[in-house]
Automatic annotation (TrEMBL):
Spans traversing the lipid bilayer: 13-37, 161-185
Location, primary (coarse class): membrane
Pfam family, one: HATPase_c
Source organism, top-level taxon: Bacteria
EC number per UniProt: 2.7.13.3
Keyword Kinase found: yes
GO molecular function, one term: phosphorelay sensor kinase activity
UniProt keyword annotation of Phosphoprotein present: yes
Name of protein: histidine kinase
Compartments where located: Cell inner membrane
Organism: Aquabacterium commune
SMART domains to which the protein is assigned, alphabetical: HATPase_c, HisKA
Domain Histidine kinase: 253-463
Length: 471
């Protein structure tokens, strides 16, 4: 159960802590203001009860000594901020009050009547009443002059008020506390942000990707706990890179060393007299050779970031790849929706291998149907370049679209049914995925509504490969 609607909850730790701190400060200030208003109201009522009896008695004494015709002219002089006087004529008109027996609920009514009665005498003070439908409350207390005329004391109880200066000071204090809270929270959250950036800098590709410029220089300024966690992350980064590099080197070494025995086996297999057996053995050797070749290619793809970026004419590069496939007898078509695309600053060989792998995959499983390569740009100011390869094969089950980008994952049931190939090694798309990451791009797979697979490589026009290499 949350005390704050989840939709209104800030997404950052800084925002959430500030929300809690500032909310608590605002609540504390509101309670302080209410206490201040309550105390000021009680003080005002107490002061009014203390002097209203004597002041009313003095005013009544003045009116008692004045002739009846002159009393009306003195009423404005005797009026105060919270009460005034009104004379009733002989008919009793001059004020609209509730009946005398109507209960009065205002807490000031009875104390005022008792204070006035103590100064004038109970016989000269009538029952107090409250005007109907008035806000704030209007209390009316009838008084008797010595000549028998009725004088109405119309009293408005004081309400607790806060001056504009007080409100301004409270707001200034609130803003100062919010600024101080923001500074404290910022100091507390900044090390966490540094820790998050350190974690983001962890790259399993190799020691060349380590960010050696940032964290080591700022470690002395960090709190001890965060500095220790940062060092632990950096040590983890080193171990992960060493582990990945060791596995990659192992794969490359095994793939390379297998080439020699495979060559000897091929030579010996060709000497087998049984033609059918020789054909089967050679087919197995071809499969093993393909696996070794793709293992070496995958090992090389992990070092694609070492290639120096340069400018490349992307439409010309794609046209060359498509022409090579056409020369090999394949039905491949190129559509360019961005003919005036400026040169792209990227790693050319890695890009060529990505598109080549996607094109080979489409030709392999496209069931001899046309394969389409499309070059386009995405919408928006920061446009992205899309290289799309569409085939008309059986596609891939939705549950395996992400899994096929991992090494050695094959989906023979869907992509290879009724196909002359026995299935690939499961490294083609994994190599394309690894190279896409080295290019700073994103490789996605999706099944086409009309059938077949769509592989899309998204690249940014403003590549930051040079910045990545200089980190």
């Amino acid at each position: 159960m949350t005390l704050w609607p989840r939709a209104l909850m800030p997404s950052t730790l800084l925002g959430r802590v500030l929300l809690v701190v500032c909310g608590g400060l605002a609540l504390a200030h509101a309670l302080t203001l209410l206490i201040l208003l309550r105390e000021r109201g009680e003080q005002g009522l107490a002061m009014m009860q203390a002097y209203v009896g004597r002041d009313v008695a003095a005013s009544v004494a003045v009116l008692d000594h004045l002739p009846a015709p002159e009393r009306a002219a003195w009423l404005p002089r005797l009026a105060r901020a919270n009460y005034r006087y009104q004379l009733l004529d002989d008919t009793g008109s001059g004020a609209s009050t509730r009946p005398a027996n109507t209960p009065v609920r205002h807490p000031l009514a009875e104390p005022v009547r008792q204070a006035v009665a103590a100064e004038l005498g109970p016989q000269r003070v009538g029952p107090i009443s409250e005007a109907a439908g008035t806000s704030p409350a209007q209390l009316t207390l009838p008084l008797k002059l010595r000549d028998g005329h009725t004088l109405l004391l119309q009293l408005t109880p004081p309400r607790p008020m806060v001056s504009a200066t007080t409100v301004g000071l409270l707001l200034a204090q609130m803003l100062a506390l919010i600024a101080a809270a923001w500074g404290v929270v910022r100091v507390a959250v900044r090390p966490l942000q540094h820790l998050a950036h350190t974690a983001e800098d962890i790259q399993p590709d190799g020691p060349e990707r380590v960010n050696t410029a940032g964290p080591p220089r700022t470690l002395p300024t960090l709190p001890t706990e965060v500095a220790q966690a940062t060092r632990a992350l950096q040590a983890l980064q080193t171990r992960v890179q060493a582990h990945v590099q060791e596995r990659t080197q192992l794969l490359a070494a095994i793939s390379h060393d297998l080439q020699t025995p495979l060559t000897r086996m091929r030579l010996r297999t060709e000497q087998v007299a049984d033609a059918e057996l020789r054909t089967r053995l050679l087919a197995d050797l071809d499969g093993m050779s393909a696996l070794v070749a793709e293992g070496l290619a995958y090992a090389r793809s992990t070092h694609a970031h070492q290639e120096a970026p340069c400018a490349v004419d992307l439409p010309a590069l794609l046209d060359a790849l498509v022409c090579d496939a056409q020369d090999a007898g394949h039905d491949v078509r190129l559509h360019t929706d961005a003919p005036d695309l400026p040169p792209l600053h990227t790693r050319v060989q890695a890009l060529r291998r990505v598109v080549g792998n996607l094109l080979d995959n489409a030709l392999k499983y496209g069931e001899s149907r046309p394969v389409t390569v499309t070059l386009s740009t995405g919408p928006g100011t920061a446009q992205r370049i899309h290289i799309t390869v569409d085939d008309a094969g059986p596609g891939i089950p939705e549950a395996d679209l992400l899994a096929v980008l991992q090494p050695f994952h094959r989906v023979d049931a869907s992509r290879n049914r009724d196909h002359r190939h026995s299935g690939g090694t499961g490294l083609g798309l994994a190599i394309a995925q690894q190279l896409s990451l080295a290019l700073g791009g994103e490789l996605t797979l999706a099944n086409r509504p009309e059938g077949g697979l769509r592989a899309r490589l998204a690249l940014g026009q403003a590549q930051s490969l040079g910045q990545q290499d200089s980190r």
